[in-house]
Amino acid sequence: MNSRSRADSQGSLDEPDDEVMPYSDDETDAELEDELDQSVDQLPEPETRPAPAVEAGWSVRANDREYCKRPEFQKKVFLCIKKSRYSGNAIKTYKYNVLTFLPLNLYEQFKRAANLYFLCLLVLQIIPQISTLPWYTTLVPLVLVLGITAIKDLVDDLARHRMDKEINNRKCDVLLNGRFVETRWMNLQVGDVVRLHKNDFIPADIMLLSTSNPNSLCYVETAELDGETNLKFKMGLKVTDERLQEEQQLSQFNALVMCEEPNNRLDKFVGTMIWESQSYALDLDNMLLRGCKVRNTDICHGLVIFAGNDTKIMRNGGKTRFKRTRIDKLMNYMVYTIFVLLVLLCAGLAIGHTYWYESIGSKAWYLIDGLDYTSSYRGFLSFWGYIIILNTMVPISLYVSVEVIRLGQSKFINWDLQMYYADKDTPAKSRTTTLNEQLGQIEYIFSDKTGTLTQNIMAFKKCTISGRTYGEPTTADGVSLDRGKPVDFSWNKYADRKFQFEDHFLISCIRSKKDPQVLEFFKLLSLCHTVMVEEKEGELVYQAASPDEGALVTAARNFGFVFLSRTQDTITIQEMDKPQTYTMLALLDFNSDRKRMSIILKFPDGRIRLYCKGADTVIYQRLSPQSKNKENTQEALDIFANETLRTLCLCYKDISQEEFDRWSRKHQTAAVSMVDRERELDEVYEEIEKDLLLIGATAIEDKLQDGVPETIAKLAKADIKIWVLTGDKKETAENIGYSCQLLTDDMKIHYGEDVNVQLRNRQTQRRTDPQSRNKKQKESFFNEPGKNALIITGGWLNEILYEKKKKRRRLRLKKLRLRQNNQQSSSSTAPDSSQPVDDWEKEKRQEDFVDMACECSAVICCRVTPKQKANVVSLVKKYKKAVTLSIGDGANDVNMIKTADIGVGISGQEGMQAVMSSDYAFAQFCFLQRLLLVHGRWSYIRMCKFLRYFFYKNFAFTLVHFWFSFFNGFSAQTAYEDWFITLYNVCYSSLPVLLVGLLDQDVNDKLSLRFPKLYLPGQQGALFNYRNFFISLFHGIFTSLMIFFIPYGAFLQTMGQDGEAPSDYQSFAVVAASSLIITVNLQISLNTSYWTFVNFFAVLGSIALYFGIMFDIHSAGIHVIFPNTFTFTGAASNALRQPYLWLTIILTVGVCLLPVICIQFLYQTIYPSVGDKVQRNRKKYELEDEEDERKKRKPTFQRGGRSRRSAYAFSHSRGYADLIASGRSIRQRPRVRPELRDSIREVPHAENI
Question: In what helix (H) or strand (E) does residue 736 lie, and over which residues does it extend?
């Protein structure tokens, strides 16, 4: 596919700039009015009037804390209570404090329907007239559940408190009373002057005043903001740099700064500083934002403009959301369903009692209780009595068990050694215990790129020079090897010891100096760049505008061409132990349109030469017809691209003095042009950058984390769609997409302009079809066969989704309404298809985009803001009702992580904000497959099996009371002994199902990873839904029928061996209870897939425990001590000594279990699931050799495939050319000292911060 021309950043709204990260959600009113006047339509307004001047909404007085406390800066909080609109610098991410913990936590817990239900039940049990069970049988479990959940929430919130405390108590220097004193971040206020040192985090959004560097230059690392680890420079105003260096000068600084109000726009800042009656313009280059880190700058001073929650990083953070799983929500609806069934049952039984008492009860002399109640009132009391008796249909022990199971699953994740990253001593961490089963239902993954998929480490891998490719393992004679050994660079005292290269032949060519093109190649790399260098403690420190640039200069250094120093007009390098200084005549920097950079140098012998490096698509258009090796280099570029390496072409051109003089005059004229200066400079650059001679090309590897392609492939087989959301440039993101095999050559890629056209066509079609609003069936966007992929930038995303601030939409719609008459009168003019007519159309446009994206096999959103990342996640959740997971490693991913159903933080190179906001954290992306396909799937299966069984066993237990009521006059009498009812869910049936919820697994972890299709039932919600719920209900009804009516039938007209009739109420209760306990414990045995000694012991132990406790509480001794509490004296021993009753128990258990065994056998034989098939062949799979599965298949080169080149040139940001040319960053001409240390150190682009 041919490369597409880049959209013009100055064009219309329909052509957003792919290189610009859009922040369109916090424009000022003035910006909105100006834009809307131009973009809505060009129809005349009814009345024209001059726009009122817009006052700055934020003002700060330096060194004046009282200024912000003035009455005009107060805002009303509640009634007459006011506080300053300026936030303090303390941040708060926790949910509770000492006073709010109890009420807030209880409020959150009672939002769960079951907890509220049991609270109401407790109130009913306190009323004597209707209480059929003691009140403590409900109070104790309820307090236990609330207490366990509250302790868990408290532990989680204490961790947030500790993190907040650690951040708020960081130290920095603040100017107070004329001198700098150390203070905590939390005590900083707007208007304070602060002093920062190298490697300090920036505590607030501050305006840079001065630094120890020349011209107040300050280097910052912005990884926490935008994920980019290359250094950026900021600069103070000239007036503050010259006059605010000393402590006394800073203490007398009293300027007034007027600027925009706090917002989340990371790319923009507009303000004015008024000092001594002079106004100075401020922009983003003068601002140091919170979350960044000071690098390579010893000291800097700044004025706090925004603090705490007003800072841009906090504005981008998003709110902490209370996350709940699908199963939680489903359980709430099922509780409602059970409650409705319960009310209907109790109402029916109450009506039955009313009629029974009217016709029978009131006429039986032995039933007279002396209470003068009417039959209707007795029915009313019976209703509430049955509410209490049948409450075990939703036992509170269910929620205790669920919390225990979730806690256990979280511990298993924490203890998993296969998710432990030894290099950084980082284990996996489950930071929540409420979302484990949701890990088994993920449908969409939203991943950051930088630091999540990649390591942020650029490595020089290969190159092609004069048509020959270097980089494969070879000997010094050029003989290829299957396995090579690293080159020994000990001959080069400046070599980077970490640099790895296995082509010994290239080294021999350089050292022998036989091939001048090879020497020219590396000389170009050491000269043509904007890397800056400074001497620190005897070492040279490089500061590169991008990690790619640093990798190329480092490679040249290792091969003997060492960049030593530069001044405003010279560059000094060491060529094979010989220093050389070149005069720099011009530096033509990168930009997004040129995709190349050039430097014009004057050699010591007087020659003038232009060196150029850039994307092959632009370099090949400018090559001389006499240039050699174009075809061979092109083939090498294709091979490099298929290996997903980032490529760059190198070329040169000799220039005569006369030609340069003519060009230089044109360049000077364009450089001082006041109108369209950039376009004129580009035209001048074009004149000189032609007839170039090709030398070769470089290939750089942006290293992926280990196992990323394999992980993505596995997750794709599990039908999980992966979207990459990154702030990086389009070509960089696309190249990584190919590297990690998210994109493949057989995919058709659709870009923003394609998507916009298709969505407009769909919108126009909808407008022309008046019936479209009622259509529910959706048409496919991609009718042609084959895989599709979507790559869209943040600018296009805004235009496609109309993602503007609400007030912008409100103003636009207001103008549309004002001009509605004019538009209607101009009937020949079609409505603008690029704008929404109403909110419904906007929503349909968003839904269309989500539908289109979800039809694609891969989606990459690049140059997106943190807020846009969260918006994309929200759209998928809203329109697809899908379970989403976000994974990232930086502060720019926090909003996305909070928005998704599951948030995963990578404890990587960009700090700990993502980890602290996440639900799960680990060190490598490849652990995600184990988290989802093993732990997530197991957790989901276990929880579903647990819930299905729990509902079944409680329906079977409770509904026996219902059948019994037909034989006791609907009098709310229990079918069992009270203590059996109390201990049933606590002791007799809890442990086996709890162990299934903790330990059960259908297949082991290796088979779970080997067969990703096993994950599909979780995505479909197939194992727990209303269908399964009603199956459990009917299974419970069947079991309760058998447990009641088989003993009932057996007890009719029977005689024991001793001649006594065993058919009394207490004996019946013992037989029914014994049958129930044996049945439900054997039923869980049928549902257990993974047997251990613990499971075996739990099943037999629960049955044995039942009989042991029953004989104790039916003994005469305990009846003597508590005669009113234990009334079943001798019932167990009397009943269970009858063989006839043992046969009844065996018959009941058999009739209950036999149909289940038959149905399971037939179902697994006729309709086996994927899991059944894998289980059936489990032994065979476990014995198979899986070595072939682990081997990585190298991608084969296909001619004619899509070329993926020059990601470096495409993605490279503008360098330091302006800075170098101005001389602002250079104090004096550096001298190369012979006593420099043996190694030149390159600044690491990211550290573990």
Answer: helix 730-739
Report the distance separating Cα 1200 and Cα 929, nearest Å: 34
Tokens of 213: 């560097």
Domain boundaries, the chain: 170-316, 460-703
Q: Compute φ and ψ for 598, nearest 5 degrees.
A: -135, 155
Q: How far apart are CA 734 and CA 716, in angstroms?
A: 18
| Residue 704: per-residue pLDDT | 82
User: With respect to CATH, is domain 460-703 assigned 3.20.20.10?
Assistant: no
| pLDDT, mean of each 10-residue run, the chain (1249 residues) | 36 52 46 45 36 56 86 72 82 85 88 79 81 72 81 84 89 90 92 91 92 82 67 84 89 90 82 88 87 86 91 75 82 85 92 88 72 84 88 77 89 93 88 89 89 79 89 85 81 79 87 88 90 72 77 88 83 88 87 81 91 88 87 88 82 91 88 74 88 91 85 91 84 81 86 85 79 66 79 84 53 53 45 61 85 89 84 91 89 84 79 77 92 94 94 94 90 85 85 92 88 91 92 95 92 65 79 95 92 92 92 78 73 81 93 94 86 80 61 47 51 62 53 42 36
Pick from 1229, 1248, 1246, 1237: which is nearest to 533 by CA?
1229
- What is the DSSP track for 216-272? GEEEEE-HHHHS--SEEEEE--HHHHHH--SHHHHHT---EEEEPPP---TT---EE
Residues of the binding site for ATP: 448-450, 549, 590, 613, 646, 726-728, 863, 869, 892-893
| Residue-level pLDDT at 1236 | 40
Catalytic option among 226, 241, 448, 548? 448
Could you tell me whether strands 429-430 and 693-704 are parallel, antiparallel, or unpaired per DSSP bridges? Answer: unpaired
Paired tokens of 29: 């009113």
pLDDT value of residue 34: 46
Number of alpha carbons in the 13 Å side-chain half-sphere of residue 729: 20
Q: Give the amino acid at 576.
A: M
Residues in the chain: 1249
- Per the structure block, which two tokens stand in for 66? 């009282």
Write the burial class of residue 1001 (CB in 10 Å: 0-12 exposed, 13-18 middle, 19+ buried): middle
Considering the entire predicted model, what is its pTM?
A: 0.75
State the binding site for Mg(2+): 448, 450, 889, 893
Q: How far apart are CA 1105 and CA 1102, in angstroms?
A: 5
- Map residue 1224 onto helix, strand or coil: coil
User: Is 423 a residue of the active site?
Assistant: no
Distance of CA 346 to the CA centre of its chain: 47
Fold matches, 170-316 and 460-703: no
Cα–Cα distance between 206 and 303 in angstroms, integer? 5
Contact 197, 288 (CB under 8 A): no
Maximum Cα interatomic distance, the chain, rounded to a whole number of Å: 131
Domain at 170-316, CATH from 2.40.128.20, 2.70.150.10, 3.40.190.290, 1.25.10.10: 2.70.150.10
State how far the Cα of 1235 lies from the Cα of 1120, in Å rounded to an integer.
99
Nearest to 787 by CA among 710, 855, 703, 875: 855
DSSP string, 626-683: T---HHHHHHHHHHHHHTT-EEEEEEEEEE-HHHHHHHHHHHHHHHT-SSSHHHHHHH
271 phi and psi, to 5 degrees?
Answer: -160, 175
Buried b (16+ CB within 10 A) or exposed e, 503-531: bbbbbbbbeeeeeebbbbbbbbbbbbbbb
Q: Which amino acid is at 973?
A: Q
Distance CA 970, CA 389 (A): 12
How many C-beta atoms lie closer than 10 Å to residue 308's C-beta? 24
Q: What is the pLDDT of residue 829?
A: 42
Sheet containing 171-176: order of strands:
179-184, 171-176, 193-197, 299-306, 205-211, 287-288
Listed residue (854, 734, 879) closest to 793, CA to CA: 734
